[in-house]
Amino acid sequence: MTSQLSAICFNTPRPSDLARFWAGVLGWDPLGGADGEVAVRPPDAAGFHIRFLPCREPRSGRNRAHFDLTSTSPEDQRRTVARALELGGRHIDVGQRPEEGHVVLADPDGNEFCVIQPGNTFLAGTGTIGALACDGTREVGLFWSEVLRWPLVWDQDQETAIQAPGGGTKITWGGPPVAPKTGTNRLYFELALPAGTDRDAETDRLVSLGATRVGTGGDDGGPVPMLDPDGNEFSVRGPR
After folding, report:
1. CA-to-CA distance for 63 and 129, rounded, in angstroms?
2. Is residue 201 part of a domain?
3. Which of 38, 48, 145, 235 gets the highest tally of CB atoms within 10 A of its CB?
4. What does the alpha-carbon distance between residue 116 and residue 74 come to, in Å, rounded to a whole number?
5. For residues 234 and 240, what is the distance between their CA atoms, to the nearest angstrom?
6. Mean pLDDT, the chain, whole residue set
7. Within a domain: 184
8. Can you say whether the dihedral through the CA atoms of 45, 146, 134, 9 is positive or negative?
9. What is the pLDDT of residue 238?
10. How many angstroms separate the CA atoms of 54 and 65, rounded?
11. DSSP calls for 19-78
12. Which of 233, 160, 161 is nearest to 190 (CA)?
């Protein structure tokens, strides 16, 4: 069996604050963790978790990935925005135009996210987190489709998107031009191996698809740090 998307991880100097914020915005359940990390998960426990890991490295530049949250009605969109602001979020300007209809916000740590207007057909049926929208090449979209065995649901004009066979959040890549990477990404994917999977064989498969293993991390049995073809960090850990 292949790696599964276990979590979207945030590196942050304030894990508990971000966990409270995102649990409140999404209506997800908070989870405790070891070594200062905190997580939230969907109420039905399906899909990925969001994990917040302590990090002292300062944020540099705009993130390469952000959440697009869905809305069922204009009032639902307004409620989501109001809830985010009450919990410590703020409006930000990333060059969006008023006629675009979505609202761009930042969480208390400055991580960008959008609250999408109702009626967006591309995100229909995806759930509260409609998409994780990423800066990235077509190559990296094809890479992640192969890694996760998630089919492509969009592949046009260098833009790609994948979605799990059972539905849920889409992961999208906007194609070129891709903004230069400035430091370590604040958001990254954590993959987990199903029970009985050989970790070395799986990391070899990932390398054959275009990933790069970083240093000797993971030799102690911990997560294996890797880079995707666009240089984005991700990790592979054994069954949790």
Report:
1. 17
2. no
3. 38
4. 10
5. 17
6. 92
7. no
8. positive
9. 81
10. 19
11. HHHHHHHHTPEEE--STT-EEEE-TT--S-EEEEEE--SPP-S--SEEEEE--SSHHHHH
12. 233
CATH number at residue 110: 3.10.180.10
| Residue 180 included in any domain | no
pLDDT at position 1 is 67
State the residue range of the domain holding 112: 4-173
pLDDT tens-digit series, residues 208-221: 999 999 977 666 66
Give Cβ neighbours of residue 156 (< 8 Å, ≥ 6 apart).
none
The tokens describing 90, both together, are 């703020």
Give the integer Cα–Cα distance in Å for 127 and 207: 32
Token pair of 190, please?
């954590």
Q: For the residues 89-117, what does the mean pLDDT come to?
A: 88
Per the structure, the count of domains in the chain is: 1
Please provide the distance, in angstroms rounded to a whole number, between the alpha carbons at the two ends of the chain. Answer: 15
Identify whether 189 is part of a domain.
no
CB-based contacts of 26, cutoff 8 Å, min separation 6: 40, 42, 69, 128, 129
Which of 196, 193, 197, 201 has its CA nearest to residue 223? Answer: 193
pTM summary value: 0.94
E strand residue ranges, the chain: 4-12, 29-31, 38-41, 49-54, 65-69, 90-91, 103-106, 112-115, 129-134, 152-156, 159-163, 170-173, 187-192, 212-213, 224-227, 233-237
